[in-house]
Amino acid sequence: MSENGTKRLALVASKGTLDQAYPPLILASTALAMGWEAGIFCTFFGLNLLHKQRLGHLQVSPIGNPAMPPPIPAIEALKVPNIVGMLPGMTAMATMMMQGMMDKARMPSVKELLDICIEGGVELFACGTTMGVMGIEQKDLIPQAKCAGATAFLSYAADADVSMFI
Amino acid sequence: MSENGTKRLALVASKGTLDQAYPPLILASTALAMGWEAGIFCTFFGLNLLHKQRLGHLQVSPIGNPAMPPPIPAIEALKVPNIVGMLPGMTAMATMMMQGMMDKARMPSVKELLDICIEGGVELFACGTTMGVMGIEQKDLIPQAKCAGATAFLSYAADADVSMFI
Amino acid sequence: MSENGTKRLALVASKGTLDQAYPPLILASTALAMGWEAGIFCTFFGLNLLHKQRLGHLQVSPIGNPAMPPPIPAIEALKVPNIVGMLPGMTAMATMMMQGMMDKARMPSVKELLDICIEGGVELFACGTTMGVMGIEQKDLIPQAKCAGATAFLSYAADADVSMFI
To answer: What is the ipTM of this complex?
Structure first.
């Protein structure tokens, strides 16, 4: 619990694909709606969540995830095999299909969720140590991103009710 | 700690491959054996854990994970390269091999672990928001799955001693 | 908090690629520097962190992760498509490039971080249940690795201030 008695959620976002960018944003915005405070420490590929250009172009991998549901969910035989998934254009196709499913399920976009997080005052930490590794500079990030290290995150998480690494 | 003073484990299961389905089930069943209470919030690909048809057919990816050990563990040179791993039948092959290693190590199947969790009263939440995205309806899930949102999970996790996102 | 009043970080390391081996080691060594105590429970592919031979040869996958930045970060069009990434030699190439970015960002190697963790007294648990599944024997691991089960980890994590599954 934070010093003022409010419940707190502390998250690390380390992945940068569309499917894995949603969980930290959904959890943080849900926490806000419950009157909690929340912080997201973006590191490695998770820095894409704070990246001005990349956030709007997150993608889903069509290969390497045998848990990916088939295009028509009831027909398991339609699952896209890796030898097809690796063809040019298939990453865009898989992304378009998942985005379509998300729109149908009326899920907000990652951009909309990030805006909710920003308006609600979610602390957005950009891991300074891994920015260089990902070829990202401060100017590539949204102005709300606060450059910080793992020390800042652990201090924040020490007072959290729920901490999770995503 | 929960209201009745019992220790509590709160997990999110977001992955649906064989290797990543085990950790939430092992942790929750271990917690039960220690007299804790436990809950698993299944979201995105993790919904496969509660899916009547899919649970028995979880697979391991033969590509995209350079940490996958070679078929004969002592001979690193036998590691399956991606160009071979992406061929038809290799996902089934990798799954069969890992399942074989698991049987040899006398690990229970995911189905057996889920049954232990159900009998022990683990709370099984199915994320209502992502069911649509994964093409899953309530009727596809086991009857013990309770359709819920992130709010229900965070409320549950707020009283947990250990919370983890898997 | 541990019995002696020191803050505690409890981590599960379940991945064995270069990019995913860093977070547990960075977090644990940062915790040490802050005067916390820390423990890492290595399971499944995460056992590579304690593997004498494998730790020095962790790799990055060139495929299946559309969040991988392009070789020249400012030019998104240079992103390596899966059909190229799956060619022989590309895993070594992607690893070399990420290692180069890490060296440029002056990040210590995973080996150096592990040494810091060992010297600082981080508890290193090797999951006995999954060692068999990964084809690993006690003699393959560094002497500081303590063979343990999920029970030992949950007992350790119950007294932690921050617990995370990586």
So the answer is: 0.94
